[in-house]
Task: structure prediction
Amino acid sequence: MARAASIDTRIARIRKAHKKVKALERRASSLQRRLEAARRRLQALFGGTAARGGRKARRVRRKVARKTKTAKRGKRILSAAGRASIRRAQKARWAKFRAAQAGAGAA
Result:
């Protein structure tokens, strides 16, 4: 008989705990709905998501940036005449520099 009472007591405790869990689940559900409503209001006020101010997540922005490839510029080629012109100009600069050095050294 004592064993039957013990089982009944345990069952009563389990039922009581179950009721408490259900009450907490209802409370959590209610809070979740209120939170979602607040988020929707913020989104309506500010546009986009409240946390990011309408910007996409960094991970998404990087993913989009990786997809867009810029066209690679081809190798620039200088003609022989262009190289000769640069060579002449550089030689003239060095000649002018050396002449200035020689003039300063003689004085």
User: Anything to note?
Assistant: The mean pLDDT is 85. Residues 36 and 42 are 10 Å apart (CA to CA). DSSP finds three helices and no strands in the chain.
